[in-house]
Specification:
Elements lengths: L7 E5 L10 H13 L4 E7 L7 E4 L2 E7 L5 E2 L2 E2 L1 H10 L10 E5 L4 H13 L4 E4 L5 H8 L3 H13 L3 E4 L2 H11 L5 E3 L6 H5 L8 E6 L8 H13 L6 E4 L5 H10 L6 E4 L5 H9 L1 E6 L3 E2 L3 H8 L3 E5 L3 E2 L2 H6 L3 E4 L3 H13 L20 H12 L11
Parallel strand pairs: 1-2, 1-7, 2-4, 7-8, 8-9, 9-10, 11-12, 11-14, 12-13, 14-16, 15-17, 16-18
Antiparallel strand pairs: 3-4, 5-6
Helix pairs in contact: 1-14, 2-3, 4-5, 8-13
């Protein structure tokens, strides 16, 4: 590559924002837009959009390697999607790139990209969001979890360099790979300016949660928490923002608990500014997840100045963010423990906030510009003089 040329970066992920809305999708969206100021950025993914297989958006080129396959089979990630997406990544043999970075999920494609980069004599960087132990894999997949754990173990060793999305994930990676493994810690970011400039929604609510409606998010536990608070004489209202495979089951669970009048499900919130507005309209943000690799929504709630309650479940790494917050509470992973914590917050005159807490200066570590700069360094891209993206 001549010095006058812009480097060509390949980012590989099966799901992209705004077609699929999750923490890692937001991360790729925000980082790609910022890298595009200093590099030619190509995102290789499934074909989420209508029209030609190549799409341009905000300086980023999106290239479909395959048609769109359903990412979930029931409540679990689809083997079919993972395998076909991995095979489709062989198409990267046709493209030139100076740096390549891939998402951890759905894992099988990491081996395809290792083959591609070996042949092209280039290094492979993978962003790792979560490390599951063998026990968790068995709980998730039964006996097949042993095979999945082995695939994860091998996939960790395939890249030349790993980017950990949190310090806790880096610790878990080093426990498996050893202290000398090549790992950078680049936490997820949030839109600090957008949060600061947003205003609370006119419709107030007691509790709010944000996330995909998946089993490990434990929204059913939140519904049980609401029922417990009602039984204790605290008739709280609750807003659930998000969509996913468990939508129908959660509606039914709310009816079974006789709290459907107190719980509102919003599957139609597409703009981040609207998410911030709804979070700010709540008294407490509750995240009962059994598993979080980081917790962007949790961090956003903290930045919105809302009291946050989450659990101490071993694989819920968002608890480390909440523990840093002046208005955060980490409790046991049960509906009763969450209910007790919420009751303390709601009955404490100083337990909830109406404006972002000025003392949360550590949030400045989590701006997207900073995260993008760090990713660029890991990929060998010069980001000096790149404009900040609003």
């Amino acid at each position: 590559m001549r010095k006058s040329e812009r480097p060509i970066v390949a980012l590989v992920t099966d799901a992209i924002y705004p077609y699929f809305r999750g923490g890692k999708e937001v991360r790729y969206h925000q980082v790609a837009q910022r890298l595009a100021h200093r590099a030619e950025v190509n995102v290789f993914t499934m074909k989420w959009w209508d029209g030609p297989p190549t799409m341009h958006d905000g300086g980023v080129t999106f290239r479909a390697t395959s048609r769109l396959y359903p990412m979930y089979s029931g409540d679990r990630r689809s083997y079919r999607e993972a395998i076909f997406f991995a095979l489709s990544c062989l198409r990267l043999f046709r493209f030139h790139f100076d740096a390549i970075e891939a998402d951890q999920f759905p894992t099988f494609h990491i081996f395809t990209l290792r083959l591609v980069t070996w042949v092209k004599r280039q290094s492979l960087t993978v962003t790792w969001h979560e490390v599951w132990d063998r026990k968790y894999w068995r709980e998730y997949l039964g006996f097949a979890g042993n095979f999945a754990w082995l695939i994860q173990w091998l996939a960790m060793r395939a890249p030349d360099h790993l980017i950990a999305a949190s310090a806790e994930t880096a610790i878990r990676l080093r426990e498996v790979l050893g202290e000398h493994a090549s790992i950078s810690v680049i936490p997820n970011g949030i839109d600090l300016d957008g949060i600061q400039n947003s205003h609370p929604n006119d419709k107030r609510v007691d509790l709010v949660t944000v996330g995909r409606l998946l089993p490990h998010k434990n929204i059913d536990m939140l519904l049980e928490t609401v029922a417990l608070l009602h039984a204790a004489g605290l008739p709280v209202t609750c807003l659930v923002i998000g969509d996913g495979p468990q939508r129908a089951a959660l509606y039914e669970r709310a009816r079974e608990l006789e709290i459907e009048h107190a719980v509102e499900f919003r599957h139609d919130v597409w703009e981040q500014k609207d998410v911030y507005s709804l979070i700010k309209a709540a008294r407490v943000a509750v995240f009962p997840s059994a598993r979080e690799g980081f917790g962007i929504a949790v961090l956003e709630a903290i930045a919105c100045g809302v009291s946050v309650v989450t659990t101490s479940a071993p694989d819920n790494l968002a608890q480390h963010l909440v523990a840093r917050s002046a208005a955060g509470t980490v409790c046991g992973p049960s509906a009763q423990a969450i209910a007790d914590s919420i009751q303390v917050v709601l009955t404490d005159p100083h337990g909830t906030q109406d404006e972002p807490a000025a003392q949360e200066t550590w949030l400045n570590e989590h701006g997207w510009d900073f995260a993008a700069d760090q990713v660029a360094r890991a990929l060998g891209i010069n980001m000096e003089g790149a404009p900040h993206v609003p």
